[in-house]
Amino acid sequence: MIEQYYPIFVMIAGGVVFGVLMGKVNEFLGPSRPTEEKSSTYESGMEPIKTARERFSIKFYMVAMLFIIFDIEVVFLYPWAVSYKQLGIQGFVTMFVFIAVLLVGYIYVWRKGALEWD
Amino acid sequence: MSLNIADFVSSSPLMAVTATALLLILVEASRKGRPGLSFTLSMAGLFAASVFAVVNYSDEQIVFFGMLRQGWYANFLNLVFLSAAMLTVLVSKPYLERQGAHRGEYYILILFATIGMMFMAGANDLIVVFLGIELMSLCLYVLAGFFRTKDTSNESALKYFLLGAFATGFLLYGITLIYGTAGTTNLEAISKNLPTLSSQWMFMVGVGLLLTAFAFKVAAVPFHMWAPDVYEGAPTTVTAFMSTGAKAAAFATFVLLFHQVFQFTGSKVNDLIAYIAAASMVLGNVIAIAQANIKRMLAYSSIAHAGYMLSGIAAGNSEGQTGILFYLVAYTLMNVGAFGIVGLMEKVDDQNLQLDDYTGLSQQRPFLAALMAIFMFSLAGVPPFAGFFGKYYVFLSAVKADMTWLAVVGVMTSLVSAYYYLRIVVLMYFRDGKGDVAAQPAIPALVAVTSSAILLLQFGIFPSFIVNAVQKLF
What we know:
heterodimer; A: mainly alpha; B: mainly alpha; 2 strands
């Protein structure tokens, strides 16, 4: 039973060894000349102003939640679209029901004004 | 492999509730501030689903590619869930109106939680069990915090969410280990290979993790700590639904897994369940005595009732199954009834929730006091109410399974419980006081509590009605 997992264990061990090794090699061989600019947090080129630990408006969470729901819908649509011909009419009906249910949720979200920022 | 119409017909109760829930979302989206319509529609949908459940009360069949098992067992429990939901909806409308939180979303969440419960009872695959539990729990987390501006309600929702998520972790790890050893999540396949599987320690660890998760969901000792706080803080009608529907659903899956799939009768697993049952009965009943708040008292009493029902699972015989299913019916009726009256008594801002507030209720509201007395007698297990026969059957099954000690613990702790249940009756009838309800009792809530009291009497005097229906299952 457990023998079947050996390749995975080897993979994990290899990954850990390789990752640590590369980091250490870099540390030993590369020149280290830190400046204030270099050791500051990287924020996509923006200059960091203050700590990131502060309260966010609940609207961000709302957008994040809605994004996840409709993103997962798309994730399900891809494999369905790829194997559309094999699934036939049954696959079409099933997906139609799935999208219809999501559409009900979308209408609710839209009418309740969750898609508006203000 | 193809879908056919028969699959949809045999799971029509599930389909009916789902369709109603989706319709309610659209109603809520199109007509803001019309919760009355949602109330009517949800009652209609739940009633239609109950009719379908009665019509489909027939041989079990596997539908939807081996995912669901629809038939006697699922439909018997569907009727329990649907009655719990209907009674809750009826008591909720006046309660929410008085508390100023009457919104259409409440009914949507109740319906989706009911769908989750129906999935749990009709599951034929561990993944469906997981989906059902999650659908039910997520709705209940939101419902527990339905009074958004109230601190206690928020605390209750957050506690329930955090601990519930933790229990879900146990459930998932258990499912993972069982899948790892059995190579399938299908319950029939696991049941077939049980003799070889149960000798593997990894499989047994998985079973243990499942046991932990379900013990949490039914609030059995030592996984009961969340129950009193959550039950106290949540809106009273939500507590009624949580303590009956959710508990019935957890027991439905518990029986399905530990009676029908994993047959460990007479093994150490069943001894372990017996210890959990005994601990729940003792702890729940003893701590309930010390409570001054009626919702907390009923929360501890629900821990004790989980213990009574667990002794039926520990016994592991067919009497145990009959006993649990009978008990679930009785427990649902009496607990929704008791919480329904608590909801009628409750004033805004958590007023009128102490035991002392019930003093002299029989002079002010003789009818409500009589109903409350019926529920208390039934919870205490006094004949001729259904609660008596529920206890009788589970204790009988424990004796038949050579677990006489468990039945003795059960009877002794029932005696203890009589003290705190009958104290309310004494307060209502033999003390003078100001006991009064919050407002004129509203018709829907009165209909709900009266019909549960009538059904309790009926199933108490003619228990054979339920027993025959249940014994057909096995």
